Amino acid sequence: MILRNFKRHKSSFLINLIGLGSGLTCAILIYLWIGSELQMDNFHKQKIYQIMQNEHLSDAVNTIEGTPGVLAEALAEEFPEVKHAVTTSPGFWLGHSKVGNSEHPNIAAAGKFAGPDFFKVFSYPLLYGDSNKVLTGTKTAVISETLAKKLFKTTDVVGRSMVWGNPEMQIENQAQISGVYKDIPAQSSDQFDFLISSDVLLDAGNSTYRKWTNYGPATYIVLRDDKDLSLFNTKIKNFLKTKKVDNYTLFARPYADAYLYNQTENGKVTGGRIDYVKLFAFTAVLILLIACINFTNLSTASGSRRLKEIGIKKVLGVHRSSLILHYLAESVLLSFFALLISLLAVELILPGFNRITGKDLILHLNSSLNLILVALTLFTGLLAGIYPAIYLSGLKPVTALKGKLQFSTAALWMRQGLVVFQFVFSGILIIGVLVVYKQVQYVQTKSQGFQKENVVYFETEGKMKSNPLFTVDAIRQMDGVANAASINRELLGDLRYTTGSFNWEGRNQKEEIRFQTADVTPGLIETLGMKMTAGRSFLPKIWCRQHECDY
Fold it and tell me: How much of the chain is helix, strand and coil, in % rounded to 5?
């Protein structure tokens, strides 16, 4: 009978089907995205903590992830609460590297330096190698299974040699592969292709790495099971003062929280990506609610076509509860039809959705997801159908048989309220999309202080990178090149290169002031047609001729 009613009222059925299907499609897509965000870095078997520093400036507290390179070793030795501790290098040291062997000499790969306890702290499974030994010594490297296949066409490569290098640091070194780890899962915020033992830095005579004022590396620890984080933070807070480092205090935060809660202000967490998670969750609920309201309004408005049916059923003695169950069954069944449509739509939309979000989401139906989808569909069907079911089943037989739908003052206010709610929040969503579109358009078209037209930018490697003046002069001789220059960093938004070593007369030496810096060759300003008074917030504050800045 329910299917016969759907067939009789095709237009209402199709409109409701499309409305609920669209709402469920948006809700499922957002659910997949939120699930991916919440799962980031939560696959590790142990509770990992990252050691952070609060830099106490004259008027603020600046929270940084970098720590002294020797901190992990010191914490493991001096604090019995620490079960394991490891130091890793910042990504820019080996983040853009080249690895190779005799057959494949130059393969781009992202690497990092790591201490010997790396695989004791992080749950990255080793396919080959001993987790206690793979990162010991100065000639050892651990690579991913994908990189192993690229270099050797097999993953059983322990004992073989490879060359790793960093064009930026002009490093090239031999290493013996001591282990192969399974590819890093997509749920990890830290993605890398190979690891080099941090002993390499010490063996190279890198005294900076041993200084307590070196804030490049990151430090991670695992506490013993019975240790309280707050008590541990109290103990390590002023630990750096014992190493004669002032103005810095330490604290540990859960590593899994770093991805979502990555914004701080004056030493306290103020939010981060979690704000987007909450916003999108609210948006999903709102979209689904609008779809339900649309169903409710349409079902109530089209109820006049079923008045005689309702009147006859009541005359024949059908109870109101039976009518309510019947209409709710129609609503729930329609919701399940909408679910099938939405699942098909999600499969079609996911590739584009992944490109926009930078994710690798898949719709993998399993027991838990199936249960959630069934519950969501039931809830949607009941929410959308409860008011029409109660209202239509409550009509008096005489009124229903007359075929005229008359609304009481309360019912009229209810319908009008739902319509206003639907249009207001639909308007909010449309305006929100337009605002975001305009903001993106503004960022894309805003002048950033230089002339973008006819400017070509490319990365240099090897000898070209080590001798930028020669490279620039050679490029200038090419036909069609008006001018050329080089810079040792990305032009916009690159915060890696900062220094506080500049001095001037009258400077307060106790005040920490840092500048973004860039090493450039002569002619950069002319090449870019830069307007030095515009776009300053995007550009480095200090410009130096290549190799002529001492800081």
Answer: 45, 15, 35
